[in-house]
Amino acid sequence: xxxxxxxxxxxxxxxxxxxxxxxxxxxxxxxxxxxxxxxxxxxxxxxxxxxxxxxxxxxxxxxxxxxxxxxxxxxxxxxxxxxxxxxxxxxxxxxxxxxxxxxxxxxxxxxxxxxxxxxxxxxxxxxxxxxxxxxxxxxxxxxxxxxxxxxxxxxxxxxxxxxxxxxxxxxxxxxxxxxxxxxxxxxxxxxxxxxxxxxxxxxxxxxxxxxxxxxxxxxxxxxxxxxxxxxxxxxxxxxxxxxxxxxxxxxxxxxxxxxxxxxxxxxxxxxxxxxxxxxxxxxxxxxxxxxxxxxxxxxxxxxxxxxxxxxxxxxxxxxxxxxxxxxxxxxxxxxxxxxxxxxxxxxxxxxxxxxxxxxxxxxxxxxxxxxxxxxxxxxxxxxxxxxxxxxxxxxxxxxxxxxxxxxxxxxxxxxxxxxxxxxxxxxxxxxxxxxxxxxxxxxxxxxxxxxxxxxxxxxxxxxxxxxxxxxxxxxxxxxxxxxxxxxxxxxxxxxxxxxxxxxxxxxxxxxxxxxxxxxxxxxxxx
Length: 526
Hints:
- By secondary structure, the chain is of the alpha+beta class.
- It has a single domain, classed as Outer membrane efflux proteins (OEP), CATH 1.20.1600.10.
- Helices cover 59% and strands 7% of the residues.
């Protein structure tokens, strides 16, 4: 059966007309596109879907909160240092206390006293020798000579060779200078160790403070993630990861606190327990340092280094020992007076006792003294060169440490802080997760720890140059004070007495001229 074209047109019109009328009705009701408004919707038979009531922020805040409300890692700086208590010690006061209380310094001071006692013994005159003898006398032929009683008194006084005496006194004085230089070396080493240990304690305290802030941060993050897991907005895997981060932060915080306590104990050990257990240090790793130019250090260190001064004094003592051994070849004279008395006679005798160096002229002792002098001289030359090289190395290390500090504070820390701000912005817009931001903060925390370590290395290098090699701890100022109290003797006084043709007796309360010594350093290092 075929359908005619007219029938097809009629059927198409019949099918399209209802849809066209319905379309015309709905087209008149479409609103124009306008800006969104908050007017109430028209009433409808279908109930509107209302959103759930928001959870109160006091009990269940949203997992994605503004990142500014989360604590961040504290950036250690000079302005962020905690307020010191009233009884806090400065580095100089701590150094002075340690030098006064340490037993090694007292032992080195006793060595100086022993050397000064050797000067007294070397400058003393030899004592006279007195011999007394007596007894009965019996004749072999009693009839010819009756028995009687006789006695004899002999006095012997040694007159020293003046060249031997002068060389012996000079050698003893050089021994005093060597002991005093060793005492200065002990004080310089202890002063450097005290200052380094103090800065190490400050470093450990800063790291412990930073690790504490990291632990507080992770605790807050874990609490927020736990709330998000509770309301179903965050996966439980994030909570497990946050728990692991909290445990790691707690472990690092405890280790940092224990390291700070260990540094405190080590510092009290160097002060022989003179510090209180709860002492505080009024200083910071960010305190400025001052050091003269390298050229000035090259000229100053060989002249003031205690080790070089000690070897110079030992070399002087060895050379004077050569003079002493050579002068000992010349004989010393012993004056003898003898008085003999018996029943019939009285006899007075005066004589001289001289040792003539014919068979042995002390060649072995002289050669040994010459060899010892050469040994000390070679050691002195090598030590001067070695200290110069050590100073160059320490200076280069100081420059490297200073450059590291400048790099951290000038670029690395700023870049890490910029990366953290970018991560925070990405978190606010939902492009990054909270753990990614925490990873960025962990990187910043590591950079800050490295910055503190660089600051400590800079302080350490500075103390090696300033205290250990230059002996900037006022060692001689303390010894000079001891001399003014009459506790030790000076070579100038003994040499002055010897040059005047007389020997002056010194007791422990001697009141000689004040000792002219090197002035105390005014750089505040002790």
